[in-house]
Amino acid sequence: MIVELYRWIDMLILSSFSAGALAGYLNSGSWWCARWFRATLAGAFLIAGSLSFLEQVHQFTDEISWATITLVAFKTSIGSIWLIRQGIGVLLLLLALLPTGRALLFFCFIALALALSPVGHPIAAESVTLAVATHFLHLACFALWFGGLAVLITSPTARTDLFILAHFSRLAIGMVVGLTATGLMLSWHFIPDWLAILSTMYGRILSAKLILFLAVLWVARKNKHLVREAQSTHGSVLRDHLLTRRLWFEITGLLLVSALAVWLGHQMLPMDI
């Protein structure tokens, strides 16, 4: 469960970087874009990666030594992925020293998503390249949706700006479509037949994740209706308190979806049973 916790933290860090990128894109200047915040996130990413790697090394041997760490780091695929990940983490830490700009914020987000893509089941697929690329898009869509919600919740100015709300609403539709399409593609990679959805632990967790995702979509649809209502009246009836409450429901649902996704990533694949 410790490795799963670190993976979940990774997803939250990725979503925080996406929040910074979206805050810059939507011109809703906030601490999400601040250099100190990006440096903190990069440091947390490096620490989480190191602790997760040590936990994985511990699975190879009960005695953790410098020789064992070096062996796993340079002689295994797990080590190679970890070295690339940590290299990207160091790059993000150095980039935090540069002045904030839209291109830089999106570059940091994309770099981090790339670092997290070759992890878990995708690297065990028959078509590794396609599975990892699909996983990258899946992570990016989730993080952008989650990050946008985080910006709206923490910024009253952004939450009451009809231009920003309309912009994010259109973006969220694209992220939902992308998340659904890539989720179906990943399921197609790993589920040999639809009976496995109910007969295996992997399938049952996937089903729970899907049901929760549909509930989040229902809340998101209600939020979109509020935004359209406000647009039709030029903002005179924007019910901010109701919108804020529903945004909290939406982001909490996505937190639970991400937790199930991480748990799912550590289950035995139906094709391996």
Task: For this entry, give a set of tags.
globular, 79% helix, 0% strand, 11 helices, mainly alpha, 273 residues
Task: Give the SSE map.
Blueprint (H helix, E strand, L loop, with lengths): L1 H24 L9 H26 L5 H10 L1 H19 L6 H15 L11 H27 L1 H4 L2 H29 L5 H4 L1 H32 L7 H25 L9
Describe the structure.
The chain has one domain. Helix 1 packs antiparallel against helix 2 (35-60). The longest helix has 32 residues, at 201-232. It has helices spanning 2-25, 35-60, 66-75, 77-95, 102-116, 128-154, 156-159, 162-190, 196-199, 201-232, 240-264. The protein is an all-alpha fold. Helices cover 79% and strands 0% of the residues. It is built from eleven helices and no strands.
Residue stretches low in confidence (pLDDT < 50, at least 5 long) are: none
Distance between the termini: 21 Å
What is the H/E order? HHHHHHHHHHH
| Main β sheet profile | none
- In terms of DSSP E residues, the strand content is under 5%
How many DSSP-defined strands? Answer: 0
Average of per-residue pLDDT values: 86
What kind of assembly state do the chains in view correspond to? single chain
Query: Could you tell me the radius of gyration in angstroms?
Result: 20 Å
Which percent bin holds the helix content?
Answer: over 70%
Structural class: mainly alpha
Envelope shape: globular
- Annotation field: number of helices: 11
Q: How many structural domains does the protein architecture include?
A: 1
